[in-house]
Amino acid sequence: MSKIAEVKAKVEAGKAKLIAGLVQEALDEGNAAGDILEAMIESMGVVGDKFSTGDLFVPEMLMAAKAMSKGVEVLKPLLTGESTSSLGTCVIGTVEGDLHDIGKNLVAMMIESAGFKVVDLGVDVSAEKFINAVKDNENVTLVACSGLLTSTMPAMKGTVQALKASGLKGFKVIVGGAPLTEAFAAEVGADGFAPDAGSAAVKAKELVS
Ligand code: B1M
Predict the structure, then answer these.
(1) Which ligand 1 atom lies nearest to the CA of residue 65?
(2) Angle 105-110-113 from CA coordinates, rounded to 5°
């Protein structure tokens, strides 16, 4: 089995303690950081499918998520460059009712390396908390909202609408996460949508430039 296949298998199996070492070995073998990340994202897809079919349950999903996070820690310095520009502050969080943070963390990482200062509010973030963060931080140019559950799409809508109705100015809102679409983003009044972390960074730059 190739090292990258081993990383994939161990993320699926939720072997968090082994992942950092395996990811390093995969890098030492000459695999690109982006390919290893892609393999781990595929693992999460497999885990999600097995959850859907009842072949594994929430604790196993959680272990797989922990394993992936350990792998991302090793890759982070390789995936992000030194940012040279200053595009202001990006406030990011996963919307209220939603505890998924791996995708949000990847987006935060890419947005930071694109030249933003990132203020990460974490998960289960209410509209009020997003608004307070815009008020409390200097030069907020972007608010980034992540959501992975169809059941929290109304919270996404409520958050975007509350931000827009707050009277606060000077920032754009970008949304993303597996169940969202460009059409949904436009419908709820967001300024931008991105399907993945890489394109979120590109879109973020475009929105504030
Ligand atoms: Co949950 N979960 N989960 N889960 N989970 C999903 C999302 C699910 C698709 C699994 C499935 O059924 N196949 C399903 C949602 C179905 C739906 O609503 N359509 C689901 C469910 C049902 C649930 C619970 C309700 C299960 C239960 O309790 N019965 C529960 C909800 C808890 C809650 O949030 N209130 C739950 C819980 C959990 C865990 C806590 C156990 C764990 C999360 C741990 C953590 O995040 N720290 C978990 C996990 C791990 C998953 C899966 C398996 C993996 C998610 C992940 O990290 N993917 C997931 C299945 C799947 O994704 N196929 C699943 C990897 C990550 C890199 O991708 O997050 O999509 P993703 O991010 C991408 C893009 O979406 C995008 O860029 C990222 C990187 O390129 N993106 C943005 C994300 N945010 C963005 C923001 C942007 C732009 C792009 O701009 C701002």
Answers:
(1) 50
(2) 125
